[in-house]
Write a structure and sequence with these properties.
Blueprint (H helix, E strand, L loop, with lengths): L5 H6 L3 H4 L2 H16 L3 E11 L7 E14 L3 E3 L1 H11 L2 H21 L6 E5 L2 H6 L2 H11 L7 E5 L9 H13 L2 E7 L5 H7 L4 E4 L11 H16 L3 E4 L5 H9 L4 E2 L8 E2 H9 L2
Parallel strand pairs: 2-4, 4-5, 5-6, 6-7, 7-8, 8-9
Antiparallel strand pairs: 1-2, 1-10, 2-3
The structure holds ligand C2E and magnesium ion (3 copies).
One magnesium ion binds next to loops.
């Protein structure tokens, strides 16, 4: 790979720089094609609330928008592969705009059809914040689809905040002034999650799924998750735990006070077209 300064290295996901150049070029071409030839797919995954009693009712709190590329030869490409390339190339801007427009349209449609979902969460990359115009685009989309800003959550990971410039702060303030909520995603996996919680106006913390795998069997992991939930609450935040695959993991997190859960145990991400029918029965 090319020489990069440490600062530049950390701005995007480290995986970008480990891809061979020819693969990055191929992915960038795939992205271009997906954007121009209807190759992007919007997936939605429910975020639920539940009671800790066994057999308790699960209710839909909201959904998270997750994008895929449907590649003509290689099938479905995962965002973990192409988002870093999208970020490095700048294609994250049209991609993010596409996801947001599709997600808002889905929410408006789902609401008209009677689905009782409150929120939709969008993942936002550092590059989208630094490019400017995100708040205006979202405001225009909300107006066009006649949706309240209170139903929008923007999820950011820590690499958004690595640059301590005023753009991030101003964007966050503008998003909150509009009425949106802010979530810190993949909490606990970065270098300094705690310091960001201290300085930036988050509403929600999403505990990364790497803390959940053994939460029901390993006391140390259970203690860590419980402490993170307690800390989130002490700061007045709502806490979501990601990556719930088992009933036991769900009960353990609920017993520790988690407000929302997300994971394959409840539902995998579904294509937008199927999501409505499935979520209505959740
Ligand atoms: P994320 O925002 O942390 O999203 C959660 C990821 O965990 C999703 O992976 C989801 O499919 C997966 N997941 C959910 N439940 C479970 C579970 O029970 N077990 C396991 N093993 N995984 C689970 P996905 O869809 O592959 O997305 C990966 C990442 O790509 C996302 O992580 C997000 O950071 C990024 N991403 C996805 N869509 C977008 C987008 O539209 N824009 C941007 N900027 N990033 C996106
Ligand atoms: Mg997310
Ligand atoms: Mg996450
Ligand atoms: Mg993630």
């Amino acid at each position: 790979g090319k020489e990069r300064s440490p600062g530049e290295y950390r701005l995007y996901r480290p995986s970008t720089v480990h891809l061979p150049a020819h693969e990055m070029i191929a992915l960038e071409r795939d992205l271009h094609r997906a954007l121009n030839e209807d190759g992007l797919r919007l997936m939605l995954q429910p975020i639920v609330t539940a009671d800790s009693q066994p057999g308790a009712r699960v209710t839909l709190a909201g959904v998270e928008a997750l994008v895929r590329i449907e590649h003509p030869e290689r099938g479905v490409l995962s965002p973990d592969t192409f988002i870093p390339v999208a970020e490095a190339s700048g294609l994250i801007l049209p991609l993010g705009a596409w996801v947001m427009e599709q997600g808002l349209a889905w929410l408006a449609d789902a609401t008209r059809q009677g689905l009782d979902t409150q929120t939709i969460a969008f993942n936002v990359s550092a590059r989208e914040i630094h490019a400017g115009g995100l708040v205006e685009r979202l405001a225009a989309g909300l107006e066009r689809h006649d949706l309240a800003a209170q139903r929008i959550i923007l999820e950011v990971t820590e690499n958004v905040m690595l640059e301590h410039d005023s753009v991030v702060r101003e964007t966050f303030d503008a998003l909150r002034a509009l009425g949106c909520k802010l979530a810190i995603d993949d909490f606990g996996t970065g270098f300094s999650s705690l310091s960001y919680l201290q300085h930036l106006p988050f509403d929600i913390v999403k505990i990364d799924r790497c803390f959940v795998g053994e939460v029901h069997t390993a006391p140390r992991q259970a203690a860590l998750v419980a402490a993170m939930i307690e800390m989130g609450h002490a700061l007045g935040l709502s806490v979501t735990v990601e990556g719930i695959e088992l009933h036991e993991q769900a009960s353990r997190c609920l017993a520790s006070g988690a407000d929302h859960l997300q994971g394959y145990y409840f539902c995998r991400p579904l294509p937008a077209a199927e999501a409505l029918a499935r979520f209505i029965t959740l």
